[in-house]
Fold this protein.
Amino acid sequence: MAEPVIDVAALVKEFPNGTRALDGVDLRVGSGETVVLLGANGSGKSTLQKCLTKLVPPTEGSVNVLGTEVSTAPKKEVQQLRTEVGVVFQKINLVRELSVLTNVIHGSLGRVRSSRNWFSTTARSEQRDEAMEALERVGLSHVAGRRAEQLSGGQQQRVAIARTLMQRPRMILADEPVAALDPRAGRQVMDLLWQVAEEERLTLLCTLHQLELAREYGHRVVALREGRVDMDTYMSQIADEQLEGLYTHEDEDHGPALPPHAAAPERVLEGAAR
C-alpha cells in the first residue's frame, strides 16, 4: 500500500442516545487509492466518512487524515483539513437560485478568502477562468449562466464535482453520490468521479448502495456491518452472494455473518496483488 492518507484505528462513535454507530473500526487507505465503502443502512458508512473530517466527532480511537490527527486537532487545523478534502453528497448542495458558474466558484472559497468570490460577476478573472475550465471538464461549460435549479439531477451532481475540482482537493469523499439519479446519469457521474481521481491522482472513498455499480467501479471494497469492518479486500475476490449478503433483512437484524473466508481483511489484503 502507498503511504496512507487515511489511517483510522479503533474508531468508536457513540451518540448521546446510546447508539454505537462505529465499534472499533480500523481502516488504512493509501495515497491515490480508490475504495468503495459498502454496507446496509445503519452499518456506519456515512458516520465513518463524517468522522474523517470531524463533521461527527469521534468518541474513541485515532483518526489521521492527510497527516492531521482529527480527533485531537484544534479547530483551525480541522478547518484547514476540510479545504483539502472534497465532499460529494447524495443531496446535491448547490445554491439553487445562483448560476452554475457562481456555484463552481464557491469551491475556491476555502483557499481564496474573498467576498468577491460569492458571485461570478464580482469574482476575479482567474477564478472565473478556472471555474469555466472545471465546467468544461465535466461537460457543462455551455450551462454556466443558467441557475442551478434549471439543471437535471445528473447535471447538478456534475456541477458539484466541478465545484470540488475548484477546491483543488487532495482527497474526495463521495457519500452515495448517485443514489438519487437514474441509471444513465448515475453512470455518467461515476465515470466522471473515477476519471477525476485517476487524472488528479486523488484518493477517493466512495460510499455506494447499488451493488452493480460497486462491482463495476470498485477495485478495493470495504464493507461495514453493525459498525464494524466486515470485509476489506479486492472486488475480484468477492462472490456476488457475499455482496448481496450485506443487504439482507437478516443481516440488518443481527443475522448470520459472511462466510469465514470473507472475514479476514488483513490477510486478504496482504496477499493480494496490486
Confidence is low (pLDDT under 50) at residues 249-274. Strands lie at 4-14, 20-30, 34-38, 60-65, 68-69, 85-88, 171-175, 203-207, 220-225, 228-234. Residues 183-200 form the longest helix (18 residues).
